[in-house]
Amino acid sequence: MCVRVCLDRGCTWVCAVQLGLEKIGSLTMHMLVLFASTGANMDLRAQGFIIDRMTDIFPTSVYTPCIEEHNIHAIFRWECVLDIYRDYQQEVASPRVVSLPSAYSSMVSARNRLSEPTGSSGNPRIFGFPDIVLPASLGEQKFLHNSGLTLSITTHGTCIYRVGTKRLKLDANTPIARAREAGDTYSGSGDDFVACEYTDETEQFIFDICKYIQFVLVL
Amino acid sequence: MSQLINDNIDFMPSEMSVQPGLCNVLQVHRNGTIVIVKVHAIHDNRFDEACSVRELTYSCWRCRERMVLWERRDCGVVTYYTQKVSKRRFKLLSLSEIFEMAMMHKTSASIAKELQLLARKSTECVRVQEAQVLLHTHTVRVQFSYKKCTMGKKKVPEFRLPKAVNICYTGCIQGNMRRSSGDDRTVRNNTRGPCGSEMHIDTSMGVLQIFSDNGGYRKITCKACEKKREAEFVVEYVCNTVRCVCSPLSCCGVCVANGCASRQRRIAVCMCLDRGFE
Predict the structure, then answer these.
(1) pLDDT tens for residues A109-131?
(2) How deeply is B94 buried, as exposed, middle or buried, from its count of CB atoms within 10 A (0-12, 13-18, 19+)?
(3) Helix A138-145 vs helix A200-218: angle between axes, to the nearest 10 degrees?
(4) Distance (Å, rounded) from C-alpha B236 to C-alpha A23?
(5) How is chain A split into domains, by residue range?
(6) What residues contact B247, with CB distance under 8 A and at least 6 apart?
(7) Every domain of chain B and the residues it spans
(8) What is the pLDDT of residues A61-72, one digit of tens each?
(9) Which residues of B touch A113 (CB under 8 A)?
(10) How far apart are CA B89 and CA B92, in angstroms?
(11) What is the model's pLDDT at position B210?
């Protein structure tokens, strides 16, 4: 390794060697923020189009109405990211969002409304129905199970997706909680002891989930 | 069309089923205004989809018992109709109900004028807004959306896919990293970096915070990253690249690793030197 050192305050000597620190394990996400825009104004009235649609497509979401006077976003919350994936699977099985993909894509290419301007080839890429792959390992799925998503939408279409890991509250009746109360170590088996795992695939899964929500919002 | 929907959104359903090939009609009665939305799913090509809105005004004079004269104004074209209703119904019917019954015997202008003279002076008006929407034959429903803010001056941001702007990671490192005896400023002042970190390193790919030693292990956080790989690169870089062994007098320097480091990396190593890690 080539290291060049310049001193500017009268140091006598400085040398650089290996620091000798070592990373243990993999990094785990604890907060993730994505920014997006629908490119159109959003009807965020309590009985309006967006709320109707979101609660229809995502029945597990919890909606908090916006207070326009205070410029607060309308907020949708999911306790578990995997709930969205289940809604996605249901949508794939019996499509409601896109019943006419070919007609839709012809409309999109004509109006160029939903194209992504940052295509590497210079040509706009069509924002299609995302293909979401659930990570295979139990650890990753446990991580996703413990992660919640909050979506904020403004009337001007700005969307902020926030994914965070939640602190698990132990139910008093679980074997772990009972063992803790008794001061013992729980020696159970099964999913209780599967360690959470966060990989590139997990991260990509979260990105795809957010793209799917965006897809539902703009279509 | 947006204006029409915005003005009447509180009286309209959120969605309406569409039968292909038929004229699907939605009618809203509101304060002397009748809104009619006609949806036809007739086009085979989506490019032919269109909508049009026209406004009609109907005025009526109750000429004499059982006789109503209607005047229909459509973009300057005036047409007259007369209508006979039973005496009882004439008294009970509301204006909009009369309108629905109205039509369809044309009356010449001269007769209309004559009738107007015979009529009571007061007239009643019904404003009719009629929107016609022509859609693709595969359309199964339409939904009505409130878009009042489109009339505002604030520009709507362009469409943008979700993009990571801030991801924070937690991890752990181990190894010796003690301060040099000559640079004890941070110890003396008992100062800490953001969030109580012992070391804070800015890089072009995010911020790395290293927390205090806990039995040989140190918790680390990577903030403001955009990808896991980038955060891992920063951690690997800091762990594997540099350890600065400084003279007691050394305070600050600039170190360029590999000759191609960015400004942020120079700052990062500067901080290592400043704190005199050994």
Answers:
(1) 444 444 444 444 444 445 667 78
(2) exposed
(3) 50
(4) 7
(5) 31-96+107-114+127-218
(6) A11, A12, A13, A14, B182
(7) 2-148, 167-275
(8) 998 876 656 666
(9) 159
(10) 5
(11) 86
Picking from A34, A41, A199, the nearest residue to B149 by CB comes out as A41
Cβ pair A74, A51 in contact under 8 A: yes
The packing angle between helices A138-145 and A81-93, to 10°, is: 110
User: If we measure between CA atoms, which residue out of B193, B165, B172, B146 comes closest to residue B239?
Assistant: B172
Q: Which helix (H) or strand (E) holds A30?
A: strand A22-37
Query: Is A22 exposed, middle or buried (CB count within 10 Å of its CB: 0-12, 13-18, 19+)?
Result: exposed
Among A205, A197, A204, A203, CA closest to A137: A197
pTM higher than 0.80 for the full model? Answer: no
How far is A86 from chain B, CA to nearest CA, in Å?
20
From chain B, pick out residues whose CB is under 8 angstroms from the CB of A119. none
Percent of chain A at pLDDT exceeding 90: 25
CB B196 within 8 A of CB B220: no
Chain B residue whose CA is closest to A7: B253
Quote the minimal CA–CA distance from A173 to chain B in Å.
Answer: 30
pLDDT at B264: 43
pLDDT of B257: 39
Interface of A with B in 157-216 (CB under 8 A): 157-159, 161, 198-200, 203, 207, 210-211, 214
B207 half-sphere exposure, CB direction, 13 A CA radius: 12
The two tokens of residue B153 are 């001056």
- On chain A, the residues whose CB falls within 8 A of the CB of B143 are 49, 52-53
Q: So what's the pLDDT on residue B165? A: 93
- With contacts defined as CB-CB under 8 Å, which chain A residues touch B257? 1-3, 16
